[in-house]
Amino acid sequence: MLTSYHEVCELVRNKPDGWIVTVLGPTATGKTRLAVRLARDFNAEIISADSRQVYRGMDIGTGKDLSDYYIDNQKIECHLLDVAQPGEEYNVAQFQQAAYRAIDEIRRKGREVVLCGGSGMYLEAVLGGYRLSPIEPDAQVRAELETKSDEELTELLASFHPLHNHTDTCERHRLLKAVEIELYYQQHPEWKNSVRAVPSLIIGLTGDREMIRQKITRRLRQRLDEGMVEEVQRIIQQGASEDQLIRYGLEYKYVTLYLQGKMDRETMFAKLNTAIHQFSKRQMTWFRKMERSGFQIHWMDVSCL
Question: What is the average per-residue pLDDT within 13-36?
């Protein structure tokens, strides 16, 4: 367990050439603050890996405080904030490709890259170079594949590339998805050729659960005081679908339900607070799964920041 910023800097200083730095952790652990310090000290720019901060105007509910990217009167450049309109679908495949472009752009400037966020699927897609289909599954293709046995699907998947592990073949739904993606790539080689794993030094933030719980609750009260309800009202008035906001989950789900009159403010706060705590646990579960699948995460106690 890392216990000081100095130790983090030593790791960054000694990382292999060509590696990026990744800062991850559950919500309310101070990821942005650490990423900004590292960006300042190592001539880097940040790429945000947050599945909801990609949306313009969704600021308070996602914790997108742009003032966090200023340190010692210096603005730290951050990519992949505000790249989509509220109500749009923005998926992990789009993020993966946008992140690759941002990494290349930053490196052309001769600068380091800090990938920072808590959306495990987004992080893993970039770091692991996962093959993802940018479109929804074709219903006709899926129906045809459903008629095949697991053995036939595995044989079909092996015809596209050698099966180095059994991750995609251990469960039928993953097997079907893997075959669908390979079939898509046969028709769209430009997507397949653009996918690459990105080696990274990974710093993970963690800490005392009760301390994080208290911070989550305190931060939620603060965001409500700062106008989170009014922010959601404004997004709806500007034309975003209420159903889509509900699908974004957490703050946007419960505030929208409150605005629809489906719960009072006190109930909204209680349910949302519980949901964020549960989300924090799911994030840690995802990061531990990443470790088990081979990603080395150097953990740091947030109390040491």
Answer: 97
